[in-house]
Automatic annotation (TrEMBL):
Region spans: Disordered: 1-26
Name this protein carries in UniProt: Zinc-binding dehydrogenase
Organism: Streptomyces mobaraensis
Domain Enoyl reductase (ER) positions: 9-306
Parts forming coiled coils: none
Residues that span the membrane, as ranges: none
InterPro entries with a match to the protein in the record: ADH-like_N, ER, GroES-like_sf, Lipid_raft_assoc_Zn_ADH, NAD(P)-bd_dom_sf
Gene Ontology molecular function terms on file: oxidoreductase activity
């Protein structure tokens, strides 16, 4: 099969080449990939550390080529969205059926491919905050793929959404169009406490955000875009009155169960137009180096999609 292979000598450390077809385990479906979306985490960390010849990629959408031998998951011919540790940047992918969601017929599989990491992370983080109707929710790093999904999902759930971005003048209108009620530079700009925070940035945003939680508030940290230390002041976690009953939590998406149901739900919302995939760049997989250059330079706000052709 054709695949994007890690090659330290190639532009962006990737080249198109041939790789062995995957051999699915009994609980895995064999999926023919139509499109894949890129994530900053796999570009900044996984790609840089992987050996030559590896086939990477977390997110992909395609069509089931061969159903799982154990009878789980959808039948051959079903359009699906898939999540895994690797293998998305190839024509064929073996996928655990509990990390595979079904997609409505006729949906744009390029848009659907943006869902797995960004959409499912946003959904899981917001669920961790609890009921959102009438609650104030801050989304930091809101111009990234996960942030844009989080803004939309929080608004759908009835939250008062505050979106944080490094350049509100440039991105404010776009974030308000997605559902943000306010757009700020960071947690320090909040005019009153918030009940929940989905943090994609870390560093001072994590520290300052936690200090601005209301009673019973929860901050879910899912990203480290700042690459800065999280230095909390003395007493930040003490039982002082102003720190009463606040929580700081994290999770790792690929350890979560029930992802097949989440991916199916999100695919339906994107296919119907109720969620906007916010594709900022789209091209064929022989243009992968161009997209990676934009991601490395942090010049891409939204998702990058590669159509396999």
């Amino acid at each position: 099969m054709r695949a994007l292979l890690v090659d330290p000598t190639a532009p962006a450390r990737l080249r198109l080449g041939e790789a062995p077809d995957p051999e699915p385990a009994p609980h895995q479906a064999l999926v023919r990939t139509v499109a894949t979306s890129l994530n900053s985490g796999e570009i900044h960390h996984v790609l840089a550390e992987s050996p030559a010849g590896a086939v990477l990629g977390w997110d992909a959408a395609g069509v089931v080529e061969r159903a799982a031998a154990d009878g789980s998951g959808p039948a051959a011919g079903t359009p699906v969205v898939t999540l895994g540790w690797d293998g998305a940047w190839a024509e064929l992918r073996a996928v655990d059926t509990d990390r595979l969601g079904t997609v409505p017929e006729g949906a744009d599989l390029g848009a659907i491919s943006t869902i797995p990491v960004a959409g499912a992370t946003a959904l899981r983080a917001l669920r961790r905050l609890g009921p959102l109707l009438g609650r104030r929710v801050l989304v930091t790093g809101a111009t990234g793929g996960t942030g844009r999904y989080a803004v939309q999902l929080a608004r759908r759930a009835g939250a008062y959404v505050v979106a944080s971005t490094g350049d509100p003048r440039a991105h404010g209108d776009g974030l308000r169009a997605l559902g943000a009620h306010e757009v700020v530079t960071g947690p320090e700009d909040l005019t009153e406490p918030v009940h929940g925070i989905v943090d994609m940035v870390g560093g001072r945003h994590l520290v300052e955000g936690y200090a601005r939680l209301a009673e019973h508030g929860t901050l879910v940290n899912v990203g480290r875009a700042a690459l800065a230390p999280d230095t909390f002041p003395p007493g930040a976690f003490s039982g002082a009155p102003e720190a009463h009953d606040r929580a700081l939590v994290s999770f790792f998406l690929l350890r979560c169960t029930g992802l097949d149901e989440d991916l199916t739900l999100l695919a339906g919302l994107v296919a119907s137009g109720e969620l906007d995939a916010q594709i900022a760049w789209r091209g064929t997989w022989d243009q992968a180096a161009d997209a990676i250059d934009l991601l490395v330079g942090r010049r891409l706000h939204g998702k990058a999609v590669l159509d396999l052709s």
